[in-house]
Write a structure and sequence with these properties.
The complex is a heterodimer. Chain A is 32% helix and 17% strand. Chain A has a six-stranded parallel beta sheet, sandwiched between helices. Chain A has a six-stranded parallel beta sheet with strand order 9-12-13-14-15-16. By secondary structure, chain A is of the alpha/beta class. Chain A has a domain at 4-142: 3-Layer(aba) Sandwich (Rossmann fold), CATH 3.40.50. In chain A, α8 (224-234) runs parallel beside α9 (250-258) and α11 runs parallel beside α13. Helices cover 20% and strands 32% of the residues of chain B. Chain B starts with 9 loop residues before the first strand and ends with a helix. Classes of the chains: A alpha/beta, B alpha+beta.
């Protein structure tokens, strides 16, 4: 069969003002690429790190989109390819969230998870019968069918900062049994936690040519026994990894630490002793903590937000990431704010979790925006985000040296940052 | 976040966005001589689209299944109390006017109005 040349594109988005940008190799496109038939040849461009060559020869184009802030750029890219007579298919998380809008700009929208589906889709494409929709929402493929990603498609040197390779993204499960207020994962991946078989996870993880990973699962704390089994099984790989929340249980935390837990993202939603102790317990096991702080919820007044920001200084966080409440479609937050007539901005480019698009309950949108900016400045006033990252990096490098897994940075790329020349005149990117 | 069965007389299964299998709690009462449809979000027991996102499509599916006239109903969405520590999961009722623009489509009901439609 004649190969079908598919141009796979991950559209760029505007990064948040004033924050350090680390471009991680995206997970969605390479997970999708792994589900394509063998006769499809893929050429991948992540527009965040390289420009798209619209004139590169191809038989068709696929857009993989994760963020709401990517969809409008995706539509522009589709338009460029339409001028060149190419058909464009779109898929991924934000395609699913914004499918009604996206379908007006592309030739085909794929909804759902692509394992076991792409032979049919690509056959239709080759035969000139590509449908407007392939709808597999709520019809999940068996989790056992999720295989290793096509990481061979990455141009590795573009995910390197001053010689340091960025972490690889990895997933050990899909779906989420929680229905958190601002989150759409349970809608997208299903309301059931679907862990991958442990042997598959180990095989997949072992095959990644990177000692540092980010396990991107929504929350690992969904099935304690599976979590314990997972950490026990991956420990011999000696990988170091970042993840979202881990079960607050001494045995699980101990196993996680032994399995290479580097640091976790932990929601800091109030100023309670519970949060303080939670952070301390991670640290007791040598696991770093990046606090994720969501500002603008209805139970937060200005004073609450200021108190929360002050509290962060007391709990010894290694890093903090601030976001403003953003009503992404298919979340309870969206439903609530829509019903209350409080969403005033439906421009998806503004849905970056750093821009206020709704009327907060206890303050003006402008005031919430100021508090958001103040939170970033305040937390990183004495030590920049890059400096704090460097400390975490040193921690992991020391552990790797002890275990004999440390890879020195690539000196050839010491003056490059994500493919671009390093501007040595910039000393503090948070200013 | 299990929703108490007190909120509904039956579970109504419907086609959500992109035909996703979805479910909500359903009660039908009479208010001012009109059928009053009360749909309740089931959170973890709704595998698909929320009642708010499903909106008019859900109302139409209920009317079709129950032989009601869309033009002659009162339609109410219920956010059930889930005994969560978070205030976002407190009980709220909204009357929906599908013909109004999104900013004015929903009207939150007061305690007395809620009593009127939820008491048999």
């Amino acid at each position: 069969m004649k190969p079908f040349k598919l141009k796979l594109i991950y559209p760029k988005w505007h990064k948040l003002k004033g924050q350090t940008t680390f471009n991680l190799p995206p997970h969605g496109p390479v997970a999708f690429a792994a589900t394509l038939p063998e006769w499809v040849e893929v050429s991948f461009t992540d527009e965040n790190v390289e420009a798209i060559n619209f004139d590169e020869e191809c038989d068709g184009v696929a857009l993989s989109m994760m963020l709401s802030t990517q969809v409008k750029r995706g539509w522009e890219i589709a338009e460029e390819y339409h001028k060149r007579g190419k058909l464009v298919m779109a898929g991924g998380i934000s395609t699913m969230l914004h499918a009604e809008d996206t379908v007006k700009h592309v030739d085909c929208v794929f909804l759902g998870e692509s394992e076991g589906r792409m032979e049919e889709v690509m056959q239709d494409w080759v035969n000139g019968k590509l449908r407007k929709f392939y709808n597999y929402m709520g019809n999940m493929p068996p989790i056992e069918s999720v295989g290793p990603c096509r990481r061979d498609l990455y141009k590795r040197e573009l995910y390197n900062h001053k010689g340091v390779q960025m972490v690889d993204l990895f997933h050990a499960s899909r779906g989420c049994r929680f229905s958190c207020y601002p989150c759409a994962v349970s809608y997208l991946g299903g309301r059931k936690f679907r862990p991958r078989p442990i042997d598959k996870v180990v095989e997949d993880m072992a095959g990644i040519d990177n000692n540092r990973l980010f396990i991107v699962d929504n929350s690992l704390a969904q099935n304690k026994e599976w979590e314990k089994e997972l950490f026990t099984a991956i420990a011999p790989l000696k990988k170091k990894w970042i993840s979202h929340t881990i079960e607050d249980d001494p045995e699980v935390l101990d196993l996680a630490a032994k399995a290479g837990a580097w640091y976790v993202y932990q929601a800091v939603y109030d100023t309670s002793d519970y949060i303080k102790e939670r952070v301390k317990r991670y640290h007791d096991y040598g696991i770093g903590v990046e606090g994720t702080i969501l500002l603008g919820l209805d139970n937060q007044t200005e004073d609450d937000i200021k108190r929360l920001i002050d509290f962060l200084g007391e709990i010894d966080l290694d890093l903090a990431e601030f976001t403003v409440m953003t009503p992404f479609p298919h979340t309870k937050g969206y439903d609530d704010l829509l019903r209350q007539g409080r969403i005033f901005d439906f421009d998806w480019n503004h849905y970056n979790a750093g821009q206020v698009v709704f009327q907060p309950k206890h303050m003006s949108p402008e005031r919430l925006q100021e508090l958001y900016d103040y939170a970033w400045k305040s937390f990183y006033a004495n030590e920049s985000q890059e400096q704090k990252m460097f400390r975490l990096f040193c921690n992991v490098a020391l552990r790797e040296m002890e275990e004999g897994t440390y890879r020195p940075r690539d000196r050839r790329l010491a003056n490059k940052s994500f493919g671009r020349d390093v501007d040595r005149s910039v000393r503090n990117v948070n200013l | 976040m299990k929703v108490s069965p007190d909120y509904y007389d039956e579970i109504f299964e419907f086609k959500g966005e992109w035909d996703m299998p979805s479910a909500c709690g359903l009660k039908i009462r009479t208010l001012g001589g009109k059928p009053c449809i009360i749909v309740t979000e089931l959170y973890q027991d709704n595998p698909g689209t929320s009642v708010t996102y499903a909106g008019r499509s859900l109302a139409e599916q209920i009317c079709e299944a129950k032989g009601l006239d869309m033009a002659d109903i009162v339609y109410v969405e219920c956010n059930p109390n889930t005994n969560s520590k978070l205030s976002f999961y407190d009980e709220e009722y909204f009357e929906v006017d599908f013909d109004a623009d999104p900013q004015h489509r929903y009207r939150q009901l007061g305690r007395e109005e809620v009593m009127k439609i939820t008491t048999k």
